[in-house]
Structures are given as C-alpha cells and as structure tokens.
Amino acid sequence: MSIRNCEKEAAGQLLDDLYLDMFHLVEEHTQCRINLERCNASGAILLARTRFQHGGSQSVSTAQIPTENSAEFNALCRVVDSTDGVCIERLSVDKSKGFVEPLHWFSVLPPMSLRNAVTKFKDCIELVAESTNLQRQLGKALDWITKLRRSALLS
Fold first, then answer.
1. Is residue 64 part of a domain?
2. For the segment 7-47, what is each residue's pLDDT rounded down to a tens digit?
3. Contacts with 137 (C-beta within 8 Å, 6 or more apart), sequence order
C-alpha cells in the first residue's frame, strides 16, 4: 500500500512541476505576443512617418512592386522547422543568385525611418518564431499533464 502512495505522491509532484512550467510558458508566450504587437505597431508608425515625410515624390506605386511579369527573385528569409523548433534563416543579398533587397525597389538611398521600419518588421518575424516555439512547448506540457492525470486517475 505504501508503494502505491509513494507513486501517487510522485505523480502529484510531477503534475505540480508541469503546471508550474505551464504557467511560466503561458507568461512567456503572453510577453512575447505583447512584444510582437509593440514591434509591429512601431514598424507601422515608422512606415507612416516615412510616407508622411516624403509624400507624393517617393510614394510607392504599383509600378515599383514586382508583379508576375517581373524578374524572379528569392526570399532573403526562410522559416526552418527542426527538432529544436522553428528558427529564421536569413540569407545575404546576392543579385546573381536572385536574392535582392526589397528596400531598394523604392529608392537606392531609402530614408532612415523606412530602414528602421524594416528592422522592426524583421524583429517581428523573429518574435513570431519565438511565439511558435513557446506554443509548441506549451502544447507538449499540456499533453504530459493530460497523460499524467489519466494515469493517476486510473491507478
């Protein structure tokens, strides 16, 4: 009888640890989402500032954005899904291989506010990957909690 009680106590302790981990993951995920919202809003404000400062002279037109008839190009950023989680792979600009800088579609010397907006949006991509990894960890913790609760209830 005491061995069964020890097993139940160990299962209870493990459940407590898993719940604590779950709460920490929820807190981290919430903070990550808040940071993502702030970063995105900051990038949008910088983009609006650029449009306001440069008005019609350097405004974006549909002629500047690539279409299906434009030369092909490759993305400078890729999402890599591995066993360690999701990460962002950034590639360098190389026109000969089709890797072009989209910022230069609009101007050879883009304004500083536009460059800062690009940086903010790149940070957003990193935060999305971090959020995805936290969600996966949270899902695994919840799966373990469910399995452990089922096994403790059956005992």
1. no
2. 888 888 999 999 999 999 999 999 999 999 999 999 999 98
3. 25
- Each residue of 142-155: pLDDT tens digit? 999 999 888 866 55
Number of domains composing the chain: 1
Range of the domain at 140: 3-53+73-101+111-154
* Nearest by Cα to 130 from 89, 87, 77: 87
Between CA 136 and CA 133 the distance in angstroms is 5
CA 69 to chain centre: 31
- Report the predicted TM-score, pTM, of the whole model to 2 decimal places: 0.82
Distance CA 94, CA 110 (A): 19
CATH number at residue 142: 1.10.287
Instruction: Provide the phi-psi class of 65: left if phi over 0, else alpha when psi is between -120 and 50, else beta.
Output: beta
119 is a domain residue: yes
Nearest 5°: CA angle at 11, between 8 and 15?
135
Please state whether beta strands 85-90 and 77-82 pair in parallel, antiparallel, or not at all (unpaired): antiparallel
CA 74, CA 100: separation in Å to the nearest integer? 7
